[in-house]
Amino acid sequence: MVEDKNLGFEVSMSPPQGGSKCFDDDGRLKRTGTVWTASAHIITAVIGSGVLSLAWATAQLGWIAGPTVLFLFSFVTYYTSCLLAACYRSSDGKRNYTYMEAVQTNLGGYKVKICGLIQYINLFGVAVGYTIAASISMVAIKRSNCFHASHAKNPCLVSSTPYMLAFGAMEILFSQIPDFDQISWLSIVAAVMSFTYSAIGLALGVSKVIETGKFRGSLTGISIGTVSETQKIWRSFQALGAIAFAYSYSLILIEIQDTVKSPPSETKTMKKATLISVAVTTVFYMLCGCFGYAAFGDLAPGNLLTGFGFYNPYWLLNIANAAIVIHLVGAYQVYCQPLFAFVEKFATKTFPQSDFINKDYDVPLPGGFTYKLNLFRLIWRTIFVCLTTIISMLMPFFNDVVGILGAFGFWPLTVYFPVEMYIVQKKIPRWSTRWISLQILSAACLIISIAAAAGSFAGVVTDLKVYKPFKTSY
């Protein structure tokens, strides 16, 4: 395949006999990804809006359980991601281009359909969660300027709906980037933004602790009295979901791995990228969660940069929230491209003769470039973005949505399928020590996911009691 000054345009050709330096072993254009580009993709996916709820999550769990749970999630995520990376190639050397293909190759049967359903519902949910988070950050900028102008005398209530519509419009534009491997630049920009707002959140937390001269919080978390005993239990469970969401990226790991060049082996590169990314994000998570809790104690806001725990310096908060928005524009695409590709591949396979689905139209762009416009891609991706935007406006509960997504995706996608595929691929004997250890890990994570889901749904029920659709103001 040759690509030349055409955005998303590829001309299919058979590679020369005996192979070519331009093509990989599967006949596709040679992959160019490295440890660092893969790390950028992972960091873009991992350090997302989830980091903003970690101070709140730590506040629910306390100084002992909070950091311990963060570390355990990071270890489990790293370990199971390494298991998953080993499943990129089958035992015969064949590549699995997507998470679902890896499940098909190693497990097959009904498990493929279950995996696909969970994966793509989760990707859809992430798009909703990111729309909510981005709109809240845009609202926070507006409110911050309003507070500054009125010297905090105006309550500055702002509706999130127009900002969700603005974010949706941006995603409609970026969703027309045809393929996952063409958004590396977007991932790098988004990764830089994620470091920016995480660092600002951390710095503000540290400065708050220095200003007050003490570490707030307790060993056991938010105290009974501030919340009831029942709320304490549900919120602790919800905190598990929030932390699980903060580490969720396994559902796109195989797709990221498919951008990596070889040699060295893709598995070796991906393990290094995973180690770098999880280590970096865990340090950030520990610092943001702990200093946010130390700064505010039981009053730690659900969203560290938009919960108005901080009011000044307002310009720094604006920079942080602008970075969140830019990051989420890119992260939305990193997560949704696999879903876009799945639907378009299915449509092409089902209707191979349809011009509407398969025909591209040349659209000239400035600079001598040509964009290949596909009508099906244009319409279906636009409908997808519109749907996620509407659902976001109907249920704009940041912490609850984050907890539900974390709970729903953590056990099946981060733990169960990687463990089961690894057992099959490595032919680990049933009831062997390693098999039993892997099953215990999977069972423990299932219990955590169920508890987190219960806590998050309880939060939704509570929020719905006082909620009016399309009228939420912050």
UniProtKB/TrEMBL annotation:
Span of domain Amino acid transporter transmembrane: 31-461
GO molecular function: symporter activity
Pfam families: Aa_trans (PF01490)
GO annotations of cellular component type: plasma membrane
Subcellular localization(s) per the UniProt record: Cell membrane
Xref: InterPro entries: AA_transpt_TM
Key word Membrane present: yes
Alphabetical GO biological process terms: amino acid transport
Transmembrane region(s): 35-57, 63-88, 120-141, 185-206, 275-295, 315-335, 378-398, 404-424, 436-461
Main location class: membrane
UniProt keyword Transit peptide, yes or no: no
Keywords attached to this entry: Amino-acid transport, Cell membrane, Membrane, Symport, Transmembrane, Transmembrane helix, Transport
The family this protein is said to belong to: Belongs to the amino acid/polyamine transporter 2 family. Amino acid/auxin permease (AAAP) (TC 2.A.18.2) subfamily.
Name by which UniProt lists this protein: Amino acid transporter transmembrane domain-containing protein
Classification of source organism: Eukaryota, Viridiplantae, Streptophyta, Embryophyta, Tracheophyta
